[in-house]
Amino acid sequence: MDIFKRRDFLKGAGAVILGQTFLSKGIQAGEPEIDLFKTINRVSDTDNLSALEKKHAPTIAIPGYIKANQVFFLTVEVGKTLHVMTPNHWIMWIEVYLGNSLISRTEFSPLIPQPSVTVPLSVGGPTVLKVMQRCNLHGLWESTANITPM
Ligand SMILES: [Fe+2]
What's the pLDDT band for 35 if we cut at 50, 70, 90? Predict the structure, then answer.
């Protein structure tokens, strides 16, 4: 890449980052003004979700009964109110972690009709499941669940 193309690329990348920063502020009327791109966002009060939390916190669905070392299926959707998938606003990816180990990453284009994924899992003992997702306008969001096999 010659120096001029590289400079144009870097200018464009800066514009995207600035655009996301400005868009992330005050996007929901009535929401506190926070920079969603400076942190990993999590639900603060599970009994009183904000509009952003309803649309962005990953929902984790696992069977009520899990047997140690037996395969079960985890389903993740983005948002209690399913997040939109449009060319200007979409979920870019979903990652699944067992403890701190990444075990699955699914990339999405805006053409995917809904942000959801199902992953086969098996655990030998109590494990913390962590799910992360990235919205192009509203940053990183994380949800966790404790898995306790019988
Ligand atoms: Fe979003």
Answer: confident
Which CATH class name applies to 3-147? Answer: mainly beta
Cα 18 to ligand 1 centre (Å): 17
Residue 53 Cα, ligand 1 centroid: separation in angstroms? Answer: 10
What are the domain boundaries of the chain?
Answer: 3-147
Q: Give 146 Cα–ligand 1 centroid separation in angstroms.
A: 26
pLDDT (average), residues 34-55: 91
- The b/e string for 5-25 (b: 16+ C-beta within 10 A; e otherwise) is eeeeeeeeeeeeeeebeebbe
- Check pLDDT > 60 for residue 4: no
91: three-class secondary structure by DSSP: strand
What pLDDT band is residue 10 in, cutting at 50, 70 and 90? very low
Q: Are 145 and 101 in contact (CB under 8 A)?
A: no
List, as ranges, residues with CB under 5 A of the ion ligand 1. Answer: 135, 137-138
Distance 92 CA to ligand 1 centre (A): 10
